[in-house]
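Project standup — Tuesday

K.O.: blocked on the structure for the chain from last sprint. Re-posting the sequence here as requested.
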Amino acid sequence: MKKILIIRFTSLGDLVTLEPTFRAFREFFKDSEITFLTSGVGKGLFADSGYFDEFIIHKNFLETVSCLKNKEYDLVINLQCNRPSHFINLLISKKKTINKSFNLFQKMFGIKVHSKSAAEMIKLSGFDEKSVDEYFKKDKGFIKLPTSKSKLFTKNNEKKVIAISTGTSERWLSKKWGLDNYSNLIVKLI
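H.V.: unblocked you, prediction finished:
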């Protein structure tokens, strides 16, 4: 059994759009123990998905490294590819790393690189091209967030439910849309 660590801390929108990637990783690494190093948002979003066997919440660099220092991984898949994720990866025990984009050297020197697709990362981990290509031809990459129907519907009320996320990270205040805009959108949807 392989032990795999997937790193992706932020952000909600990025985490949502990675769902087809996480689903593909679980499909190809069926018998592996997959740990997800993420934020509380990432754990909340994927806790019921079955894609991950363990969640480690990244709060700060030192706490994360301390938590990971006694673990050994066969494969680290770094989807974050920022300096903290590279330094964490540098300080943990692993056999192989696959970076979605920049490695540490490229990040530090601003060298532009191609961002890898889920299929490319899976191929780099050792799966044959034919089986990977066949999977991605069948799976169109639609986002399928795991939900329990019981959470969304009551027994006698089979109405559609629309969820609206009104918040952003404190770091991205420029992405805030404003209460009036959300109120107008909700009125139009009703």
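K.O.: great, moving the ticket to review. The radius of gyration is 19 Å. The chain has a mean pLDDT of 88.
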